[in-house]
User: Which sequence fits this backbone?
């Protein structure tokens, strides 16, 4: 996929400098010949060393040392025993996990408990009961880690999860400050799920960071966030559904309820697939109507049977985003959506109902595109489709398309504004 044309309004660089001055008593102030002069002493106070506890696939000990490692089922107790700032190290090897590992203990603000694999060498592989290879009629699997109330200030790093059901990480009750990094997942229903336990009212996350994650093979989604979850960062994540079909249906990143203040940067979501309905669903990124304050930076979506981006949220800012080979590369429903640099290529209606579109703007959406490029050679493509009472403004944009294709299709109550548009047909 070609890179989108860049039009950035500016770059902000924040630099913080901290100066610390120390003024010890100068040695020259002491008389070296005076035997009554006080001797010079230095007092060094060492920071306390955070404890480390150990878990191994065949652990039978109390977790106090690597040779006395505990079993994974003792993780919650070890978090409580080790306390804020501690590290729980999972030894390399395969952990067969039949039931979710429930967590209700955590760290403290500024002192999370870190659950991680070894710093070097092979890491731990957490293996669930999901059917492998994937079969929508076979065992769907269970969650891996279930985070309940109290599981605050936790950090997970350097793990692999495979053959897992609805969440390598399932947040089932409200928590604060969760970090997930350097994780690889294969054959999952979802990698990250946010769903209240046993019909509970809430599972809001206050502060979430997901980074450096690869998810290959998901049937429902890579990441779903719900409730009033906020202050979220999703960075450097690759999700590829591998066209898992039949689980009604996959969405790469899905934001629902009143999720807000989310930054999604350098995230790619590919190949969400649905062929079991007359309308083929399956989006790369989707956000529902009550979601707000979203930022996308250098994200991409391709090969999805519905939209690359299906965004109903309000107050959305996208910078240098791309989409290709989706039925609708970009689809917007909400107010105050701005794309500052985007690229769309080769929309593809694989099956089911609907139109093949680069940019689809519907309902009462208000969308502005600046500095975008759209490329396609299929005469069945519509470049800009505007419906309902929606408004679309396009500025400083280049279009390359088939001569028989449609540049814009606009319903009577809708409005489109094309300024500084280069339209090339062939």
Assistant:
């Amino acid at each position: 996929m070609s890179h989108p044309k860049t039009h950035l309004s500016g770059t902000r660089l924040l630099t913080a400098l901290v100066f610390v001055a120390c003024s010890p008593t100068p040695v020259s102030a002491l008389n070296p010949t005076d035997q009554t002069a006080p001797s010079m002493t230095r007092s060094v106070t060492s920071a306390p060393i955070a404890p480390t506890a150990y878990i191994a696939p065949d652990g039978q000990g109390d977790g106090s040392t690597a040779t006395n490692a505990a079993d994974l089922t003792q993780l919650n107790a070890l978090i409580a025993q080790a306390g804020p700032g501690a590290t729980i190290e999972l030894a390399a090897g395969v952990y067969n996990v039949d039931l979710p590992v429930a967590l209700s203990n955590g760290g403290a603000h500024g002192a999370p408990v870190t659950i991680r694999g070894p710093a070097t060498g092979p890491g731990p592989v957490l293996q669930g009961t999901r059917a492998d290879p994937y079969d929508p009629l076979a065992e769907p699997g269970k969650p891996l880690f279930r985070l309940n109330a109290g599981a605050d200030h936790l950090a997970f790093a350097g793990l692999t999860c495979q053959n897992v059901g609805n969440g390598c990480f399932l947040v089932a009750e409200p928590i604060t400050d969760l970090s997930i990094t350097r994780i690889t997942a294969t054959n999952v229903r979802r990698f990250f799920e946010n769903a209240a336990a046993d019909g509970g009212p809430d599972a809001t996350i206050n502060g979430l960071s997901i980074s450096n994650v690869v998810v290959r093979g998901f049937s429902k989604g890579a990441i779903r966030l719900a409730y009033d979850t906020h202050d979220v960062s999703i960075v450097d994540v690759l999700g590829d559904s591998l066209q898992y079909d039949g689980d009604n249906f996959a969405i790469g990143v899905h934001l629902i309820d009143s999720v807000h203040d989310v930054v999604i940067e350098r995230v790619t979501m590919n190949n969400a697939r649905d062929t079991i309905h007359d309308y083929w669903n399956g989006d790369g990124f989707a956000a529902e109507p009550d979601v707000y304050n979203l930022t996308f930076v250098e994200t991409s979506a391709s090969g999805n049977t519905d939209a690359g981006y299906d965004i109903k949220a309000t107050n959305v800012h996208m910078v240098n985003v791309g989409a290709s080979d989706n039925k609708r590369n970009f689809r917007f429903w909400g107010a105050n959506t701005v794309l500052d640099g985007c690229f769309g290529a080769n929309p593809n209606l694989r099956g089911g109902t609907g139109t093949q579109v680069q940019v689809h703007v519907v309902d009462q959406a208000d969308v502005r595109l600046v500095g975008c490029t759209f490329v396609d050679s299929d005469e069945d493509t519509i470049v800009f489709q505007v419906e309902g009472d929606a408004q679309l403004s396009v500025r400083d944009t280049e279009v390359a398309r088939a001569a028989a294709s449609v540049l814009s299709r606009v319903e009577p109550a809708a409005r489109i504004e094309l300024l500084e548009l280069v339209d090339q047909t062939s």
Summary: The first helix runs from residue 75 to 82. Residues 25 and 414 are 77 Å apart (CA to CA). The helical segments are 75-82. The domain at 204-426 is CATH 2.160.20.10 (Pectate Lyase C-like).
